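Re: the request from the purification team.
They wanted to know what the chain is likely to look like in 3D before they choose a buffer screen. I agreed to run a prediction and write the result into the notebook, where they can find it.
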Amino acid sequence: MNKVFLFDALREATDEEMDRDKSVFVLGEDVGHYGGSYKVTKDLHVKYGDLRILDTPIAENSFMGMAVGTAMTGLRPIVEGMNMSFLLLAFNQISNNAGMLPYTSGGNFQIPLVIRGPGGVGKQLGAEHSQRLEAYFQAIPGLKIVACSTPYNAKGLLKSAIRDNNPVILFEHVLLYNLKDYIPSEEYFIPLDKAELVRDGNDVTIVTYSRMRHHVMQAVDILIEEGYNPEVIDLISLKPIDIDSISQSLKKTHKLMVVEECMKTGGIAAEIIAQVNDNYFDLLDSPVVRLSSQDIPTPYNGLLEKATVIQPQQIVEAVKSMLA
C-alpha cells in the first residue's frame, strides 16, 4: 500500500496505461512541459515525448475534434480540460461526434476517448471556473460519466476508462486533488457503472458523489454520536446511475436523501428521484429529500460561495428532520 495524493493517483494510472499501450496519449492545454494545471501529467513528457503528451493551443473545439478523430482511427486519447467548464466550447464535438458516432456509423467506429479534468466549486475561482457540469453532459446519449472522490477510486476509474471502448467523462473535483490516502501497490480496476457502499446503516440512505461524499461523512460522524445510523452510497457512476444499489439500500431504510453539488434544477438528484419514483416508489416511507447547490452562478465572495454549496450541518439537520 502506498499513501498518495489524488493527483498522483491519476498520474500513476496515466503512466501505467501509457506504458502498457502505445496507442494511449494525452492532449490538452499545458499538459506537457508544465505538467498540467494540477500536476496530473507532471514529467510524463520526459518519458513519452511531446507527441504522446501533447500540448495544444487554447482551442477546445479543435483539439476535442482531433481527439475524436484519433479515437476513430485506432488511438486512445485522454483529453485533459484545464477546467471542465472550458470544454463547453467543445460541446458540439463531445455530443454530436463522440457520443453519437458509434450509433450513427452503425457500429463501424468505436470512440475510446477519456475526457477528464477539474470541476466543481473551488475556493473563490469565480463563476466561470466554478461550474457543476455533470447534468450538462448527462443528457447526451452514448457517454459514460464517472466522478472520483478518493485517490483509490480515482486511479481505478481512470484505468478502467482508458481501456473502455466508449467515450468516458471523468469528473475530478478541484478541491480533492490534495486529498491523500492509501492505494494498493498491485494493479486494480474499478467498474464504470457501479456505486460504492461507503457505510452500512439502516435509518436512511444518503446518496452522494465527488466532494459531497466528504461533507456527508462529516455529517455522519455527528449523527452517529447522536444515535443515528445512516447508510451512505457514493454514486461514482453518474451515467448510467446504479439504481440497483440504491434500491437494495431502500429495502432496508425506506428513506432516501440525495446530497449533490450539482444544481437543483435538472441535476443528478432530479434524475435519481425520477428513477426511484418510477421503479421503487413502494419502497419509500417518506418523500425523497434533495440537498443541492443553489441555482445561481457561483459567487466570488467567499461567504456567499460557501452558502451556495450544501454544508455538513445542513445534512445533519435534514436527516434529523426526516427521522423525527
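For the purification team: The chain has a mean pLDDT of 96.
Please add any questions underneath this entry.
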